[in-house]
Design a protein that fits this description.
Blueprint (H helix, E strand, L loop, with lengths): L1 H12 L10 H6 L7 E7 L12 E10 L4 E4 L11 E4 L7 H6 L8 E6 L24 E11 L1 E5 L12 E10 L4 E5 L5 E4 L7 H7 L7 E7 L16 E12 L1 E3 L7 E6 L15 E10 L6 E4 H4 L5 E4 L7 H7 L7 E6 L20 E11 L9 H19 L7 H24 L3 H14 L4 H14 L2 H14 L4 H25 L16 H30 L26 E2 L9
Antiparallel strand pairs: 1-5, 1-20, 2-3, 2-4, 2-6, 5-6, 7-11, 8-9, 8-10, 8-12, 11-12, 13-14, 14-18, 15-16, 15-17, 15-19, 18-19
Helix pairs in contact: 7-8, 8-9, 8-10, 9-10, 10-11, 11-12, 12-13
Catalytic activity: [protein]-peptidylproline (omega=180) = [protein]-peptidylproline (omega=0)
Keywords: Isomerase, Repeat, Rotamase, TPR repeat
EC number: 5.2.1.8
């Protein structure tokens, strides 16, 4: 009995083995519930096991809505760049559904995952920001093709999360050994090995592995023989597997902005923050210094803000067409404090933009740009009317104030200047009109029409504001003037006049309804309207009001045809995709594999 008590006492006071605290990914996986992640096998893979934590995975991903519309894709046939995604399981930032689903796959496998919103971008505290316009509140299909995965060992964690890709310029310390430990090559002294991503300057498998690393990270990468391609780094070896030890010293972001090699942005000084979350991707007020050079034999500097602008930076609002398109496209991809060297073709520089007098037609341009800072517009959601109007007024004043510094050099430049300024006024007028501030909309339109009484868009916008304000005769005058000034607007003006007539009839009808029964009774009788008559009238009124609203929709489309929106990209149609016919079998990820028959 004493022995038993001693044993119990020993067990009670024995040091307990500490449990390893759960990783962040393990904590995230606790959110997964039955039915939130389903998998259908579309093409089986090879091998007996899939990737695990620490493995580098390379895969293609296509996201579709449940009815087959492509939302985004890495594949070129679906509008992507054709570049697969590279991640390190347990290290890279990944969507929760893929973090759980990809380890269930084999090399070469294609699977379709049906993912609830809380397991993709709608996850609480999701580590990845959703792209603009992404339907993060919807259940979606993620088609994944697992191209390859490698063993990897992280020796030292790096900084940030951006990884190199084509055509980035990379500096790294690299050594290679056989699986038995025999040294094949070593580049660990002097200067780090320099190579350009995508130029076959290192073995393919090594490049794929480095593509998952971040700055200052040190890792061991295992590459099998089929990916040990010929390169300037090392001779071809007959070994079945090579172990590379890599320290990623630095890489320079080089971006082929248009995808055809013509507009190239090369980062020459890092900025602050993470790319691309901290870039001015949305329309913003930007503050930049820049130096422009004509890329000819003379390489003459034609403008430098530090010299030609009294040391003051250029301030402009993106999305307004105030700078050449190539300039703006690249600035949107910069971080605050970053300096970049941009090489731009003529059609994205000054061939389609007011050209400085000292820049020849058809010239290729180089800009050295420094993004000092930027200011995002306020989110108007939840703001009261007065606050919204004050913010709109501030934006308008900022943009129009910049126009005070513009001095057109000839008639052509003067016309471009006047057209752009008129566009700004008319956009403000449209905002006032949508907010019900018809009088302010009229006053803003007057600023355009005072300078040009025959401005068709100004007449149309003011006519709509007059109609909204109940000034029907003034509206009719503006719409008729439209037809007189420009015969091509006859259809739009006629539609507006029809809408005007319907509005007048609507007002008259409401007035008659208000006095209905007061004058059709005998003297001394009380004018009463029976309930059934009232109901019939309400039904009739609703039907007629519905017809008026239908016409209003047509008028709105007509109105939109008068808007001019600079630098607005045309939406491309999506490719439609439908599931293969036959049974579609999903299984809750626990995980079970199911095959589409």
């Amino acid at each position: 009995m004493a022995i038993v008590n001693q044993q119990a006492q020993h067990e009670e006071f024995a040091p307990q083995k500490k449990k390893k605290p759960p990783t962040e990914d393990e904590k995230r996986k606790e959110k997964i519930v039955a039915g939130s992640l389903m998998k259908a096998l579309m093409r089986p893979g090879a091998g007996d096991s899939g990737p695990s934590d620490g493995d580098q995975v390379i895969y293609h991903c296509t996201v579709r809505t449940l009815d087959g519309v492509v939302v985004e894709s890495t594949r070129s046939e679906h509008g992507g760049k054709g570049i697969p995604i590279r991640h390190v399981l347990g290290k890279s930032k990944m969507l929760l559904g893929l973090l759980e689903g990809i380890p269930s796959m084999l090399k070469g496998e294609v699977a379709m995952f049906k993912v609830k919103p809380q397991l993709h971008y709608n996850e609480d505290d999701c580590p990845i920001s959703a792209p603009d316009g992404f339907p993060k509140d919807d259940e979606l299909h993620f088609e994944i093709e697992l191209l390859e995965f490698f063993k990897a060992k992280v020796v030292r964690e790096g900084q940030g999360w951006e990884c190199p890709r084509e055509p980035y310029e990379v500096k790294a310390w690299i050594s290679a050994k056989t699986v038995t430990g025999k040294l094949i090559m070593s580049h660990t002294e002097g200067e780090p090995y320099f190579f350009t991503f995508g130029k076959s300057e290192v073995p393919k498998g090594l490049e794929m592995g480095i593509g998952t690393m971040v700055r200052e990270e040190k890792a061991v990468i295992y590459v099998t023989s089929q990916y040990l391609t010929e390169s300037p780094l090392m001779p071809v070896t007959e070994d079945s597997e090579v172990q590379f030890e890599v320290e990623l010293v630095h890489f320079i972001q080089v971006r082929d902005v248009l995808g055809d090699g013509r507009l190239i942005k090369r980062r020459i000084r890092d900025g602050k923050g993470d790319f691309p979350m901290d870039c001015p991707l949305h329309d913003s007020l930007l503050h930049v210094h820049y130096k422009g050079t004509v890329l000819n034999e003379e390489k003459k500097v034609f403008y430098d803000t530090r010299v030609d602008n009294n040391g003051q930076p250029l301030d402009f609002c993106s999305g307004e067409g105030l700078v050449p398109e190539g300039f703006e496209l690249c600035v949107r991809l910069m971080l605050p404090g970053e300096m970049a060297l941009v090489t731009c073709p003529p059609d994205y520089a000054y061939d389609k933009f007011p050209r400085p007098s000292n820049v020849p037609e058809g010239a290729h341009i180089q800009w050295e740009i420094e993004l000092l800072s930027f200011e995002m517009p306020k989110d108007w959601t939840g703001m009261d009317f007065k606050s919204i109007m004050n913010e709109a007024e501030n934006i308008r004043n900022t943009v129009l104030r910049e126009f005070n510094h513009v001095n057109p050099q000839d008639d052509d430049e003067g016309k471009v200047f006047a057209d752009t300024r008129n566009l700004l006024h008319l956009n403000v007028a449209a905002t006032y009109l949508k907010l019900g501030e018809c009088r302010k909309s009229i006053d803003t339109c007057n600023k355009v029409l005072e300078a040009n009484p025959a401005h068709v868009k100004g007449l149309y916008r003011r006519g709509m504001a007059y109609m909204g304000n109940g000034d029907f005769e003034e509206a009719r005058t503006d719409f008729k003037m439209m037809m007189k000034v420009d015969k091509s607007t006859e259809s739009d003006a006629t539609a507006a006049l029809l809408k005007l007539k319907q509005k007048e009839q609507e007002v008259e009808k409401k007035a008659r309804k208000q006095f209905k029964g007061l004058f059709d009774k005998k003297p001394g009788e009380i004018a009463e309207v029976k309930a059934n008559e009232d109901e019939g009238q309400v039904t009739s009124e609703s039907q007629k009001d519905g017809a008026v609203q239908g016409d209003s929709s047509d008028e709105t489309n007509s109105e939109d045809s008068h808007e001019a929106a600079p630098l607005i990209a045309e939406r491309r149609g999506w490719f439609s995709y439908f599931w293969p016919t036959g049974s579609r079998i999903f299984s809750s990820l626990g995980l079970q594999r199911c095959t589409i028959l």
